[in-house]
Amino acid sequence: MQSPHPSPCALPPSLTVNPRLLPPLYLPLLAILLMFGCGYLAYHLSEQAGLRALADSGERQLELHARTVESAISTHTYLPSLLELEDGVSRLLLAPSEARRTRVNQYLEGLNQRSGSRAIYLLDRSGRVVATSNWRDADSFQGEDLSFRAYFQDALQGKPGRFYGVGSTTGEAGYYLAHGLRHDGQIIGVAVVKIRLDPLEQRWQRAQLQAFVSDDNGIVILSSDPARRFKSVLPLDAARRAQLAASLQYHWTRFEELQPLGRERLSADTELLTLAGANGARPLAYLAQTLSLNDPPWQFTLLSPVQEVRRAATSHGLLAAVAFALLAFLLIAWNERRKVLATRLAAREALEQANSQLERRITERTEHLRASNEHLKAQIRERRQAEESLRRTQDDLVQAGKLAVIGQMSTCIAHELNQPLAALRTLSGNTVRFLARGDSATASSNLQTIGELVDHMGRITASLRAFARRSDDRGEAELGKAVDAALFLLHPRLERTPLQIHRACADARLAIDQTRLEQILVNLIVNAADAMSAQADRQLWLAGQVDDGHYRLSVRDNGPGVPPALRGQLFEPFFTTKPGEQGLGLGLTLSASLAAAAGGSLAASHPDEGGTVFELRLPLLPPSPAESPRDE
C-alpha cells in the first residue's frame, strides 16, 4: 500500500521563514537617522576641537600683540618728564621771550626727530602752547589753546596725563603723554608728547590680522579694518553720545555701534561673533578674544576667522556619515549572508531527517537538492556576469575619460592652428595663380612663407605638448617679432574685418617662448576683432611699458565691452560669448595659463569709457652681452 503524496503546504517547521528575520520598514529610516546623527556628532566634536585649537593659537597672538601696543606707548613715557632737565624750558615758562621760544622750539624739534614721536610741545599754566616741535609747519600747534584737553588738566594737578584723541588742529589721531613741569615745587607748565599708533594698524594689515583696540569709552580707536574705526563696542544712549561729542576727543566723529549679526558667549573673554561683510559681502564668523591692557586701560580684541574650522568640521562630519553608512551596509550584508546560511542549514537538516524517516522519498529529495544546486549555480553565474558587466562599465568609463582629455586637446590644437591653416590656404591659392602667370619669384616667396608657416605649426603643436607636460615653461621671445608674426597670421581675417591698429609698444626681450607669446597675442587680437565685428569704427591699441623688471603690454579695443554679470567668468574654460560655431571658450584660458607658466599674468579691466583692456605682464630678460654698452 502506497503512502499518500504529501501536501506541498505541509512543510517542515525548520523550512518556514521566521517573520522576525524579515527587515522591518523602519530599519532603513533608523539607519538614515543614525547616519545623520553620527555626521552631526562628528561635525560638532570637530568644530569644538578646532575652536579650542584656534583659541589656544589666538591667546598667544593676543598676548604678543597686546604687549606690542603697550611697548609702543611705554617707549615714549619718559619723554615728557625729560623736559624738566632742560633749563631753557623752565626759563621760557618763567620769563617768555622770542629768543628763548626759538631755542626751545629747536630743541623740541631735534628731540622729536630723535625719539620718533609725532610732536612734542610745551603749554603754560593757562593751557596755551608756547613752544612746539612743529613750529616750522603750516599746521603748527604754536599759540593753540588746549586747556580743555583732559591730559592738560590731569598734568596740571600733578597726575600723569594719558589721553587718546583726534587733534583739533590737524584732525590726526594720536596718543598724548603729558607731564607737569615743576620749579621749586610748583607746576609751571605741562610737557606733552603726541605719538602715532597707526603704524600698528599697518603692521596688522600686512600680517592679515583681524584685530581692534577699544578705549575706556568703548570706542574702537585702532583697527586693522578702517571701517570699524571709531565705532562703539558698547551701547550708546543719547546722553552718552552728547557727552562724547562735546568732549571733542574724537573730533566730529558720528558714532555708530559695532553691532554683530550673531553673538555666542563661550567664556568670560571669548565669544563667537558674526559680522557683516564689507561692501555687501556675505557675513563672516569670527572667534573674538579680548585682553585688557595694563597701561593704558584699553581692550585688545583679536578676531580669528572660523571658516576653515567649520569647513574642516563639515568634512569630518561627511566622512563620519559615509563611514557609518559603509558600516551599516556591511552589517546588512553580513545579516543577509547569515540568514542565507541559516536557511541552507535548515534545509539540509530537514532533508537528512526526511531521508532517515522516509526512504522511499530519497529520489524526490535528491531531485529537490539537485534543483536547488542548479538554482544556486545559476545565481553564481548571474553574479559573475554582473561582476563582469561592472568591470566592463568601469573600463568604458575610464576610456570615456581618456577620450574627453583627447577631445579637449584636439579642440585646443584646432583652435590654435585655425589661423595658420587659413594663411596656408590663401598663400597656396595665390602661388598657383602666380605660377600660372609665370611670376616664379613671387611664387617662390609664397612657397618659402608656406614652409615657414608649416614650421610655425610644428612649433605650435610642440608648444602645446610642452604646455600639457608643464615642462620647459621658460624661453626667450622678442615682442616686436611676436606682434609682427601675430598680425601676419591674422592678415586674411583682418582683411575681411578691417580695423585700425595703433601700435605703441617698444621691442623687448621677454622670458617666454616665442611661439607661446605669439599664441597669446593671436588670441587677444582675435577676441578684440570678434568683439568689434558688429560696429563700423574698429580701433585696436597695443601699448607697452617697463614696470619693475616686467613688461606690461595692454591690448585695448573700443568694442561694446563685457557685461558686468559675465566678467568673473572670462578666464573659465569653455566660457564664451560667441555663438557655438565661432568659439569654444579656450583662448583666454590657454593664454592665461601660458602667461602664468612663464612667471607672468593676464588680467582684464573694463574702462568707464567702454571697450575692454587685456593686460599681459611678463618678466623681462637682462640685455645680452652684444646689446650691453661697451666702455670706449
Written description of the protein model:
Keywords: ATP-binding, Cell membrane, Coiled coil, Kinase, Membrane, Nucleotide-binding, Transferase, Transmembrane, Transmembrane helix, Two-component regulatory system. It catalyses: ATP + protein L-histidine = ADP + protein N-phospho-L-histidine. This is histidine kinase. It is a single chain. With 632 residues, the chain is an alpha+beta fold. Among the domains are: 118 residues, 2-Layer Sandwich (Beta-Lactamase), CATH 3.30.450.20; 147 residues, Heat Shock Protein 90. Helix content is 49%, strand content 18%. It has 14 helices and 20 strands. The chain has a 6-stranded antiparallel beta sheet with strand order 7-6-13-12-11-10. Strand 1 and strand 2 form a beta hairpin. Helix 13 packs antiparallel against helix 14. The longest helix is centred in the middle third of the chain and has 76 residues. It starts with 25 loop residues before the first helix and ends in a 13-residue tail after the last strand. The N terminus is likely disordered.
Helix-strand layout with pairing:
Blueprint: H1 26-74, H2 79-82, H3 87-94, H4 98-115, E1 119-124, E2 129-132, H5 150-156, E3 161-166, E4 173-183, E5 186-195, H6 198-206, E6 210-214, E7 220-223, E8 231-232, H7 238-247, E9 256-257, E10 262-265, E11 270-275, E12 284-292, E13 299-305, H8 307-357, H9 362-437, H10 440-469, E14 477-478, H11 479-489, H12 491-496, E15 500-504, E16 509-510, H13 514-531, E17 539-547, E18 550-557, H14 587-597, E19 601-605, E20 613-619
Parallel strand pairs: 8-9, 15-17
Antiparallel strand pairs: 1-2, 1-5, 3-4, 4-5, 6-7, 6-13, 10-11, 11-12, 12-13, 14-16, 17-18, 18-20, 19-20
Helix pairs in contact: 1-8, 3-4, 9-10, 11-13, 13-14
